[in-house]
Specification:
Membrane topology: Lipid-anchor
Organism: Actinophytocola algeriensis
Subcellular location: Cell membrane
Family: Belongs to the BMP lipoprotein family.
CATH topology of one domain: Rossmann fold
Protein name: Basic membrane protein A
CATH class of one domain: Alpha Beta
Order of helices and strands: EEEHEHEHEEHEHEHEHEEHEH
Strand content: 15-25%
Number of helices: 9
Number of strands: 13
Largest sheet: 6 strands, mixed
């Protein structure tokens, strides 16, 4: 069955302090939250929003679910397990299914895409997993959408899921796991606006496609909501059709350096494994960086850059993959949300490393609650 999600009521009491950081600093007088302020470069911020209180929804996918009979196949996107980002988050969902609902590690199989591979290669990978009896099979990334739909038609008794995918008139045995990336990106945009001193803030996208534009759109809206005069500069590593932008750290470093050279002192990336290069550029320039998908501060593969990572936008692919596997084990998919958004803890932000102080968190939580309540509608299309 599709499991029901429990509701936890969180009443968050947040207090004001005399000043806030970065763009929110007032160079001439204290900012108590009753009015905006200018920092040393003249970047004005809005009033601090009211403290947040309200209901948030948490998942309860694993309760009384037995996954021991499942053989789970996982088809990674470029970079695979160890990318410190999107794929690692999916892998964490599978690992949780092993630890929490009894999926046997020896009954799982992981296969990884290669750079610039053909559609036939994706079909072959998915067909191999299906022929070997894996059920369900989870494809990680929108690039698998068409291939998954085709293979699902060949194996109607096998359940398939595609993270970020979508195909019109897909077979009934395909589930698409989508996210409100723009909502989580809005929250880290708030953080960027509060932490920036130059009020020029950068965004590096891996590939210029609508999915990654959602990250850019939400981030820019979050920055500009807090600091309307802030400047957001953006760079995509590759254009649509060239997926190497998600797995080219040197190009990620070049892209980030270009934004830093324009004055950006906080840089957010949505670039998969290329994000390692973004972190490298930030460390070299002694500026701050924001990770994506996983809590990248705690990722071993980017540990050398953790001192510049102030937060990460959490795209809870791990939650979606785990919830989906648990739903298949329960033989009912009807409880999965149509979109993994802030309401269901499908996106969020990290606080590892202690760089998000209580004042900053107060701003973020207030805006988060406004989004959950529908008072703020976050765009999924960049404004310019």
């Amino acid at each position: 069955m599709r499991f029901k999600r429990g509701v936890a009521v969180a009443a968050i009491a947040l207090t004001s302090v005399l000043s806030v950081v970065g763009c929110a600093k007032d160079s001439g007088s204290s900012n108590s939250g009753s009015g905006g302020g200018d920092n040393a470069t003249g970047c004005k911020t809005v009033d601090k929003p009211a403290a947040a209180s309200g209901e948030t929804t948490t998942t309860d996918a694993g309760a009384k679910v037995d996954g021991s009979a499942l053989k789970v196949g996982l088809a990674f996107d470029i970079g695979g397990r160890g990318d410190a980002s999107f794929n690692d988050s999916a892998a964490a969902g599978l690992d949780k299914a092993v630890s929490d609902i009894g999926v046997k590690k020896e009954n799982t199989k992981e296969l990884t895409a290669t750079d610039q591979e053909s559609e036939d290669a994706k079909l072959t990978r998915l067909r191999q997993l299906a022929q070997e009896g894996h059920n369900p099979i989870v494809s990680v990334g929108f690039a698998y959408s068409d291939a998954t739909a085709k293979i699902a038609a060949e194996f109607p008794n096998t359940q398939f899921a595609v993270v970020d995918g979508f195909v019109d008139n897909a077979p009934a045995n395909v589930t698409f796991l989508g996210f409100a990336e723009q909502e989580g990106s809005f929250l880290v945009g708030v953080i960027a606006a509060l932490k920036s001193e130059s009020c020029t803030i950068g965004f590096v996208g891996g590939v210029n496609v609508p999915l990654i534009q959602k990250f850019q759109a939400g981030f820019q809206q979050g920055v500009e909501t807090v600091a309307p005069d802030a400047k957001v500069v953006s760079k995509y590593i590759t254009e649509a059709g060239d997926l190497t932008g998600f797995a080219d750290a040197p190009k990620g470093q070049v892209a980030a350096k270009g934004l830093i050279d324009q004055g950006a002192d906080v840089v957010y990336h949505a670039a998969g494994a290329s994000g390692k290069g973004v972190f490298a550029a930030a460390k070299e320039a002694n500026v701050q960086a924001i990770g994506v998908d996983s809590d990248q501060y705690n990722q071993k593969t980017v540990a050398e850059y953790k001192d510049v990572i102030i937060t990460s936008m959490l795209k809870r692919v791990d939650v979606a993959v785990f919830d989906y596997i648990a739903a298949v084990a329960s033989n009912n998919l009807t409880g999965l949300p149509p979109v993994f958004d802030l309401k269901v803890d499908g996106v969020g932000y990290s606080t590892s490393g202690g760089k998000i102080d209580d004042e900053t968190k107060g701003w973020v939580e207030a805006y988060k609650q406004q989004i959950i309540e529908g008072k703020i509608k976050v765009s999924d299309t960049p404004s310019s």
